[in-house]
Amino acid sequence: MRTPLRPLVTLIALTALLASAACRPPDERRSIDAMTGAAIAYSGYRDGQSPASGQRPSQAQVEEDLRILASHWQLIRVYSSDRHGEDVLEIIRREKIGLKVMLGIWLGREPGKEQDNATQIAEGIRLANEYQDVVVAVNVGNEILIEWTEHPVQEEQVIRYVREVRAAVTQPVTVADNYVWWRDYGAELADEVDFITIHTYPIWERKEIDEGLSYTVENYEGVRAAHPDVPIVIGEAGWATYTEGNLHVPRAGDEKKQQRYFDELSNWAHTNRVTTFYFEAFDEPWKSEGTEQHWGLFSVDRKAKPAIQSLYPDRIPSGPTSPAYPDKILASGPSLDVVMNSRLAEEISAGSVNPMGPGMSASSIQLLDGAEGGSGLSLTFTGDSWAGLYLFLNEYDAALATSLSMQLQLPAEVTQLELKLEGPETVARSVNLMQFQIGRDEVGWSRFRVPLAALEGIDLSRVAVIGLWNPSDENGTFIACSIVVDDIRFEAEAE
Question: pLDDT per residue over 23-36, tens digit each?
Fold first, then answer.
């Protein structure tokens, strides 16, 4: 998650609008008293099914899911007013299943999806009116306002959609988005909705489980302080059981951590009477690979993960419900070029390659030809202040390694360059890399090999970060320069 920044002129304009706008009186807001009890987000897509392909769950599969959920939850959230969403409502009514629904209206990117959005609006209104005994609230749009969304809709248009839906249905109407947007920018929209729906994911903001609940509560309280007169529902909060990439702390995803977060969040929500939709019911394999596939309290084959096994003793699996992290990665062989190949832009945006400090130029990271025929990473230092590069690893297991090697092109006047290794819990050790040069070829590539004994104290089985910092001269003065780095690898034996 990232905190969005908007131009000052936007904030000034928004302030002017708010100054002239009267807030909706509390007695004009529709009650959310019907949204009570344990709540969970539900999407029923199984292996081989997805919204994009049009292959949706059968009614028999949906009925199975709803009966599973109804034994513990009273309220579910669905995301789209499509055939899958209508199946949910139809089956609940037909089979007299004890669930109520917050119905979603899915909004796609605008410009481009206006006709699809109009269809969703019309279908959402129809379903909310046809199934008034089941639908207790209507949500217009999901994560469409936060800056990193892939399907943005302008706030002015969202307000028009909210007004259209609210005028046509009797249920309370909301918009679901990231807590940051609601806290910092949501004042005008908050005046239009009956309640605010926020999303908060500590795991995406590099929080460990010890901070999971406290960070969630902090985010909730931040929105409540910004909008003290508007009811707030947590529309998504959860903990994945497996994670890939570097948008979270290494190995953040874990079945036991999910169990702890689920228990703590459920107890807090019940004690404080905050309607909280846990994300989510079932794993969804159709989503992008990695973390996104592992948020469910149940696996995709409807087996209970540890968090809810006491509630579902008949659905306990015979083994783990999530992938295992590798016990060992052989600390020799291929270099760590995952951060130096054609995926560089993706890795930078994902946070795996992260420039640090004021002394890095605006275009401080680029791909160039590497020493071994692949790609090298060019780092530009301004020399004005401290600066460095972090390569975030997903707890790389280098327990079998004896050294860390790399090749660099750098100016001769650089006599100090800090190499930092960081383990879990931010335990870090540093050395001057320039002390460990072992050779230089005819085209200017210098080879370095650092005995890992020189970085004593790091848990080599869980290396989280490799850092290169502050090229300096013999007097410690920062040097403006470019350095190209390539072929970083842990080695089990010296060559």
Answer: 566 668 999 999 99
Q: Which of 446, 374, 449 is nearest to 407 (CA)?
A: 446
Between residues 367 and 162, which one has the greater pLDDT? 162
Q: What residues pair up with 419 in beta bridges, in sequence order? A: 431, 468
Rounded Cα distance, 175 and 139, in Å: 5
Give tens-digit pLDDT for 335-364: 444 343 434 444 444 445 677 888 876 667
Is residue 172 a contact partner of residue 214, using CB atoms and an 8 Å limit? no
Helical axes 83-94 vs 59-70, angle rounded to 10°: 60
414, two tokens:
């650089």
> Encoding tokens for residue 126?
């129809």
Question: Does domain 8-315 bear CATH number 3.20.20.80?
Answer: yes
In this structure, the number of other CB atoms found within 10 A of the CB of residue 10 comes to: 11
Domain boundaries defined on the chain: 8-315, 337-491
Distance (Å, rounded) from C-alpha 185 to C-alpha 11? 8
Q: What fold does the segment set 337-491 form as a domain? A: Jelly Rolls (2.60.120)
